[in-house]
Design a protein that fits this description.
Helices cover 75% and strands 0% of the residues. It is found in: Cell membrane; Membrane.
């Protein structure tokens, strides 16, 4: 029964990751814990497998591939590896309720920030003067980037990936849009590169920590999620940037609320 449930849930999660370039980990962890009866610490490790494989599958779409900035994504991911290793080593020693509680807080904060960004973009696009205003460049030049902020953000993203078992897309996408000035569609595609690399490094860092992974449930979930990811990528072509941002924010706030109720209810 658990395998069948993993199959259907994984398919839905994959579509979400493919469409938004994020969301796999934030959905996988609570699903593994509360629907598939996995231990919270095991769930964070299992989620890394699911997120990494789903990110790779989501990049297979030709249209999605064309949106990826591999250089920026690879640099961001390589910097984040240090944080991923540290987070993976610390996570097993944190009490399960604290782990899930802090996970809820993180999701809520990022959800609120992204909601404000999406709403602001929506208002600007629907403004009667929108067509008269100069449009910002899709990305900033390397000389304009704040490398201190980028390194700090990448390290923090890696730590969160290793600590919570999430792909980091819900942090990477805002950073790529707000700090590097990428368009939402480009940021969501590029974040898949970051997710794949940081998930792999976080998983390797967990070797020897004593966490038991249910490989049957995990690989079934991952296989279904990978299939869903292939279908989710083309969906971004049918949506406006602010719509993706707002959908992302609603997803984060919804998962934060549901997880908080299950954890402390």
């Amino acid at each position: 029964m658990m395998v069948v449930l993993s199959l259907f849930i994984g398919l839905g999660v994959g579509v979400m990751v493919g469409a938004l370039g994020a969301g796999g980990g934030i959905l996988s962890v609570p699903i593994l814990v509360y629907l598939l009866n996995q231990d919270p610490h095991a769930a964070t490790a299992e989620s890394l497998v699911i997120v990494g494989l789903t990110a790779l599958a989501s990049m297979s779409s030709p249209r999605r591939w064309a949106d990826i900035h591999f250089r920026d994504g690879s640099v961001f991911a390589l910097i984040s590896i240090v944080g991923a290793v540290a987070g993976s080593r610390v996570s097993p020693f944190v009490p399960a309720q604290w782990l899930m509680g802090s996970f809820c807080v993180l999701l809520a904060v990022v959800g609120v920030v992204m909601a404000r960004v999406g709403w602001s973009a929506r208002r600007q696009q629907h403004s009667p003067h929108a067509g008269c205003l100069p449009q910002p460049e899709a990305s900033t030049r390397p000389t304009q980037r704040s490398w201190v902020r980028i390194c700090t953000a990448a390290t923090a993203t890696g730590f969160l990936t290793g600590f919570f078992g999430v792909g980091g897309g819900f942090i990477v996408v805002p950073i790529l849009t707000l700090v590097l000035g990428m368009a939402m569609r480009t940021a969501s595609a590029t974040s898949l590169v970051v997710m794949a690399i940081t998930a792999a490094s976080g998983l390797l860092a967990r070797v020897g920590t004593g966490v038991d992974v249910d490989w049957l449930v995990t690989l079934t979930f991952a296989a279904a999620s990978m299939c869903g990811g292939m279908f989710g990528g083309p969906l971004t072509r049918k949506a406006r940037g602010y719509q993706l941002t707002l959908a992302f924010a609603v997803l984060l706030l919804g998962v934060a609320t549901a997880t908080a109720v299950e954890t402390f209810g």
